[in-house]
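REQUEST FORM: STRUCTURE PREDICTION
Request ID: SP-0412
Submitted by: Lab K.M.
Chain count: 1
Length (residues): 285
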Amino acid sequence: MIRKIVDFMITPETVEATAGLRQVKSLFFEREQDCFPVIDEGQVVGVLSWQDTMRAHPNRIAADAMSGNFTYVEPDMPLWRARELMEQDRLSALLVCEHDVLKGIVTPTVIKQELGKHTDLLTGLYRTDYLYYNALKLMASGQEISMVFADIDNFGEINKQYGHVKGDLILKEFGALLQAHTPPGAILCRYGGDEFITLMTCSREDITTLANDLRQIVAGYHFPDTIPVTMSVGVATAGRVSDRSLSHGRLLASLINKASLASTAAKKDSSGLKTLEQTIDSESA
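STATUS: Completed
RESULT:
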């Protein structure tokens, strides 16, 4: 489910430290690679980006223009961790090594292209891969997690009555509305279709309050053509995992499933509150 560097890294072309920059510049176009590891006596001594060559005199060699803005990573590093590392340390490249052998290279351009595949084009929100990565990271650090599973009521009927173009506008505004009212530090993604998930580290009481607030905000919002839009909400929480043998992935799947079931049950709730709660722990996962 979670993409790893090995899934999208590019096979690295290298340049010798003594290579002239005029020669190297032509390689950028020939290889369609925006950063090259620089080799001296068989060892990586730096990386050379297109920007590095533009800042240096064309008569210089690679060793004169290269930078040390890189680090070595393992092939199984998740995409999202690679992005964090790249931004945090302002790196020009991640060099992927396995058993001390250079296997691939990841650059900011590669990261940007890969992230685009995990962004929902309609709403601009990340898809489930981002949710899974952050949830598993929080669980691995021993934190409690809670989620709101939001599902637009009768969205199929909205599409039938008003058309898919209006339906898409509603999804776009619905996502923007949730995002505008998502607390700092929370993770919001489009789970699929008309379903959205908000992930937080908070108590059951706080996540239930957020769910109620979001439901009321959506109900009071004026969507295109004054189309009435409401949503059903399911809330699920998971405590700290004390059983180290328990799979975080299994627990997370159970959490999402129970939040989804709670949302479905909320649609049948006659009170109009449309918020039900499910709590799971390591024993019930």
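NOTES: The first strand starts at residue 15 and ends at 16.
Reviewed by: T.R.
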